């Protein structure tokens, strides 16, 4: 009798470290920041916070990918970089709302695999983000470019 040929579920990614790095926003990021600021009816800092998750091994791309969660919030989009994966945060309130929540992976939205990592905020995120857009843009120019952060 032949063995089952059903595809084996891929092993969950093993996260080894988490770092949050503020970087200069791209033009698409600036558009998203403007939109989110208008939705929230407040000015947002002109920065893209890159949440870098180092992985022991970057899993191959498959049709059965892993969804990433911070607590109960599903990260809608993340990308690969040389040491793992990353996602972007444009509103510092995200860090306040999800501070200390665990990062988790799932393939079926039922069984979750805890990474052992918790979300932290970068030191540069102010407790009360009330900077004027003009000042935020000037500060963003002093931040590293995303390409440079992702190459490190």
In short:
This protein is of the alpha+beta class and 152 residues long. It has 4 helices and 8 strands, in the order βαβββββαββαα.
**N- and C-termini, Cα separation:** 52 Å
Main sheet: which strands, in order across? 1-2-6-5
Overall spatial form: globular
Q: What integer is the average pLDDT?
A: 86
Q: How many distinct helices?
A: 4
From the alpha carbons, calculate the radius of gyration and give it in angstroms: 18 Å
> What summary fits the major beta sheet?
4 strands, antiparallel
Would you write up a description of this structure?
By secondary structure, this protein is an alpha+beta fold. Helix content is 24%, strand content 29%. It contains 4 helices and 8 strands, in the order E-H-E-E-E-E-E-H-E-E-H-H. The protein has helices at 27-40, 93-98, 133-142, 146-151; strands at 15-23, 48-55, 67-70, 73-74, 79-81, 84-89, 102-106, 112-118. The chain has a 4-stranded antiparallel sheet. A hairpin with a 2-residue loop joins strand 5 (79-81) and strand 6. The model is unreliable at 1-7 and 127-138 (pLDDT under 50).
Summary tags:
152 residues; alpha+beta; four-stranded antiparallel sheet; 29% strand
SSE blueprint:
Blueprint: E1 15-23, H1 27-40, E2 48-55, E3 67-70, E4 73-74, E5 79-81, E6 84-89, H2 93-98, E7 102-106, E8 112-118, H3 133-142, H4 146-151
Antiparallel strand pairs: 1-2, 2-6, 3-4, 3-7, 5-6, 7-8
């Amino acid at each position: 009798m032949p063995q089952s040929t059903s595809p084996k579920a891929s092993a969950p990614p093993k996260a080894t470290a988490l770092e949050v790095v503020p970087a200069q926003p791209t033009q698409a990021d600036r558009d998203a920041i403007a939109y989110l600021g208008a939705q929230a009816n407040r000015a947002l800092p002109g920065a893209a916070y890159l949440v870098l998750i180092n992985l022991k091994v970057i899993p191959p791309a498959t049709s059965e990918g892993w969804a990433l969660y911070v607590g109960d919030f599903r990260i809608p989009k993340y990308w690969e970089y040389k040491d793992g994966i990353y996602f972007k945060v444009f509103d510092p309130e995200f860090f306040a709302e999800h501070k200390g929540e665990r990062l988790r992976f799932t393939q079926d939205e039922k069984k979750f695999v805890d990474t052992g990592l918790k979300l932290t905020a970068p030191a540069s995120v102010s407790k009360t983000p009330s900077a004027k857009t003009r000042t935020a843009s000037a500060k963003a120019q002093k931040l590293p470019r995303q390409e440079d952060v992702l190459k490190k």
